[in-house]
Design goal:
The protein is an alpha+beta fold. It contains nine helices and 43 strands.
Length: 848
């Protein structure tokens, strides 16, 4: 007899949602996420972006509704949504961990919440009933969602292990012999880049890839000079690379003090304070280094080649000809307030923020009265237009050769069209007498100024580090562009010729020898930021005296330093057109065959901590004018990528002259630039609540130009970069073949994030690298506080040491009295970057 089916017992109705607090919270979170994604996604879709966010908003809204109704189908729908998000993310970014995380982190956490028992009790409110559709749907949906989350986690783990951004390889070994180091002993460091060639290469082999892990702190010196003093601008930095001469180490501090240390022990030997004026109109306050003249070589009685007609006067028989009296403000006379000497067989040169260059005796720190007409200093304001102390000075070390001292300086960016000149001047290295002046707005005119005349206002300037080849008799200048940076409607043809260029001048006369322009009609602040590096390369069986010039836009131009002609190919490529009213754009721009130019940004490259600020970045990208590199500035706002922080900046590159390879530090950050029409020449258009205090300049106002400019990093609503990491690398380049052999992400966000995160994301660096003959490279400039050592051949990180502050400086290396090789770095931070301030100089060496 058949058994009667048991009577159907209906499931009790689900309890009110208010009784399930976690489920209620989940519903609210899903509803809010749905609203944001649907509304923002609709906006993005109207701008021509991806439909993913609109669909995501609809899916999450549907899941929230199903949860309210206690439908187990919610689990199935959410599992399908997460799986679709994973597949879409892999299609957009592949196995890029940070890209995957930004797209799925919130949804992964919400999925975990949906699997919690408290939510399950509502979706299966009658667990005693077996075999019902409700029970089977809940169990199946829960399993499906768990499986998708496990799959998501597995992909995340795989993407963490795989580095899709790395280029693996090994640089070649020695291909030549070590040339003489311009008279610099192997264990010493006489210029910013060790020699005038700017290679940042120490011919010392005690530290090797095998033993670098044993490095330990040998000594630690505190200068006592910290930023935050009255009158400091935001960009107060400790960027010095010390010099090492004999047993002495020489360095300068942000507030212009000069300090001598015992190179082996770190003990202070003497200190000089130039007593710079207060109330300076400073944009930057820094000192990247000093310059040293050994006093050897040509005697005072030797002649410098006489001038030919039309050239500046030069010294003959050790006595400079009488020069016209030039106007300029009276400055503090160092010799009146400091110990002085008449006997300086060698000299240190210190540029000051109030516009002087002071000569000091390296032995004692006394002012050299034989320099500067008995004052021990030269006044850089002589012959300058638009005098405002602090608006012009040498933030970088001057070039000291056996006969000529070459001095450039920085000019305020984007304050007004009436700024000091970018003139570069040559002085007698012994006496400080003016020998010649090269005015970038009159590049072919060597006629000396007459009384009452001034150099050309607001001309391109040399704020970074120059290089020199004394054998060729040439000094190499990395030039910027004239203010304002983003509008060039009134630039003269002469300025257009040399702006944002590498320029070679005759060292004896200042005559222009050649020009290589890295950007035509620069509207992006792509001034040439770093020291040209000089190295002889074996190209097709011949030794070529080369110059390697890194640029902000990511090029490594390799030129014959005798002529300025490219050694590796350079091509002109068409670029976007359409400048602001009254301006123009160049039709093409030069691109080197060795280029770190990033891929153009697009929607898939946008990033954020969550899908929501990533959505905000996608919308922002669509609203900005962006047609790739060299998109002109505009009144609606343009995206500048690479930004004016630069792929390369003042730290430059390091070159091994024996292996003929380079260690480089490319960085990638996008910036925004918006031109703001000016109604007059005085109104503050962009300062807002950040109006300058005291005598500090009103940056980006461009008084006298048609437009002010709003600039800033391209960031998400949460303040993170809108572009996905990595933002910084180390890379090895074969300068002979022109190949980028290896490239790796470098640095963490440990000191940038609200909580310490030691993950290697790849962060920018500001400060140059160092190479040693032992095959080890060093870098401290990353935005986390570390000094790191790398295998030069492969780029592998071999060692790192925690610094007490930001290390935005270039390390150097020398041999101490005890025979040990030392690596020294300044760790003082960078005001504009927000790295930790400090006053430390730290030396590392192998154990005794």
């Amino acid at each position: 007899m058949p058994t009667a089916a048991p009577p159907h017992v209906p499931s009790p109705p689900p309890p009110p949602l208010t009784q399930h607090g976690l489920t209620l919270l989940l519903v609210v979170l899903l509803a809010v996420a749905a609203l944001v994604l649907f509304a923002g996604g609709g906006w993005l879709l109207m701008l021509g972006g991806t439909p993913y966010y609109v669909l995501s908003g609809a899916a999450l809204g549907f899941v929230a509704l199903l949860l309210v109704q206690a439908q187990p189908t919610a689990l199935w729908v959410y599992a399908g949504f997460v799986l679709a998000t994973l597949l879409w993310s892999l299609w957009e970014v592949g196995l890029a961990w940070w890209g995957l995380a930004a797209r799925g982190d919130v949804f992964f956490v919400l999925g975990l919440l949906m699997l919690l028992p408290a939510v399950a009790r509502r979706l299966s409110h009658d667990p005693q009933v077996r075999g019902t559709a409700s029970s089977m749907g809940w169990r199946g949906g829960r399993g499906a969602l768990a499986g998708v989350l496990v799959l998501y986690l597995g992909v995340a783990v795989a993407s963490w292990v795989v580095d899709p951004f790395a280029t693996q390889g090994s640089l070649p070994g020695p291909r030549g012999s070590l040339a003489q180091g311009n008279g610099v002993p192997a264990g010493e460091w006489h210029a910013y880049g060790r020699t005038g060639h700017g290679q940042r290469y120490a011919p010392l082999a005690q530290i090797t890839p095998e033993n670098v892990g044993q490095l330990e702190e040998a000594w630690h010196f505190r200068t006592g000079d910290l930023r935050g003093q009255p009158g400091d601008p935001q960009e107060t930095t400790f960027e010095v690379t010390p010099l090492k001469v004999g047993d002495h180490l020489f360095l300068c501090t942000p507030h212009q003090q000069v300090i001598a240390l015992d190179a082996t022990t770190g003990e202070e030997l003497w200190r000089f304070d130039p007593k710079i004026r207060s109330g300076l109109a400073l944009q930057h306050l820094t000192c990247r280094g000093l310059s040293y003249w050994s006093g050897q070589g040509a005697s005072a009685a030797e002649s410098v080649a006489p001038a030919t007609p039309g050239e500046a006067p030069v010294a003959v028989g050790g006595k400079p000809p009488a020069a016209p009296a030039l106007s300029g403000p009276e400055l503090p006379i160092a010799a009146q307030d400091s110990p002085a000497t008449d006997n300086c067989p060698a000299m240190l040169y210190m540029p000051t923020a109030d516009g002087r260059v002071i000569a000091l005796d390296p032995r004692s720190g006394e002012v050299c009265r034989s320099f500067g007409e008995g004052t021990g200093q030269i006044n850089l304001w002589r012959g300058m237009p638009n005098v405002k102390l602090g608006g012009y000075y040498s933030t970088s070390p001057v070039v000291a050769t056996q006969r000529v001292l070459v001095v450039g300086g920085t000019v305020l960016d984007n304050v007004s069209v009436n700024e000091p000149s970018g003139v570069v001047r040559g002085y007698d290295v012994r006496t400080g007498a003016l020998l010649w002046a090269w005015d970038p707005a009159r590049p072919d005119d060597q006629t000396p100024l007459q009384p009452g005349q001034t150099y050309s206002a607001s001309s391109p300037n040399v704020w970074s580090i120059m290089s020199v080849d004394e054998a060729l008799g040439l000094v190499y200048l990395p030039l910027g562009n004239p203010p304002p940076d983003q509008w060039g409607g009134k630039r003269s043809p002469q300025v257009e010729r040399v702006g944002s260029s590498v320029v070679a001048l005759d060292l004896a006369t200042g005559r222009l020898r050649w020009v290589f322009q890295t950007v035509h009609h620069d509207l992006w602040d792509y001034d040439v930021p770093s020291q040209p590096t000089l190295v002889d390369l074996n190209i097709q069986g011949a030794s070529v005296p080369a110059l390697v010039q890194p640029t902000k836009q990511g090029e490594l131009f390799v030129l014959d330093r005798r002529t300025g002609k490219p050694v590796h190919p350079v091509r002109e490529v068409p670029v976007p057109q359409g400048a602001a009213e009254g301006d123009r754009t160049a039709p093409t721009q030069p691109v080197s065959s060795i280029s770190f130019e990033p891929e153009p940004l697009h929607g898939a490259a946008m990033w954020g901590a969550t899908p929501f600020d990533q959505l905000g970045c996608r919308i922002a990208l669509k609203r900005l004018r962006y047609e790739g590199r060299y998109t002109p500035p505009s009144t609606e706002g343009s995206l500048v990528y690479p930004g004016n922080f630069g792929v390369f900046n003042w730290g430059g590159i390091a070159v091994d002259p024996v292996r003929q390879v380079a260690f480089t530090t490319p960085a990638y950050l996008a910036f925004t630039s918006q031109l703001v029409p000016r109604p007059d020449d005085t109104a503050l258009m962009v300062q807002g609540d950040n109006q300058p205090k005291d005598d500090l300049p009103a940056l980006n106002e461009n008084f006298g130009a048609p437009f002010a400019v709003k600039m800033g990093a391209f960031t998400s609503p949460l303040g993170l970069p809108c572009q996905a990491p990595p933002w910084g690398y180390v890379a090895g380049v074969d300068l002979v073949s022109g190949e980028v052999v290896w490239q790796h992400r470098n640095g963490t966000v440990r000191d940038l994030a609200p909580v310490p995160l030691p993950f290697k994301m790849g962060v920018p660096s500001l400060g140059g690298p160092l190479i040693t003959q032992g095959g080890v490279a060093f870098l401290s400039g990353t935005l986390d506080d570390y000094l790191r050592a790398y295998d030069l051949s492969t780029g592998e990180t071999l060692w790192q040491s925690r610094l007490p502050a930001g290390g935005q400086a270039t390390p150097m290396s020398y041999q101490g009295r005890d025979g040990r090789q030392y690596v020294v770095v300044a760790a003082g931070g960078h005001g504009s970057l927000g790295t930790k301030a400090g006053d430390s100089v730290i030396a590392y060496a192998l154990p005794k």
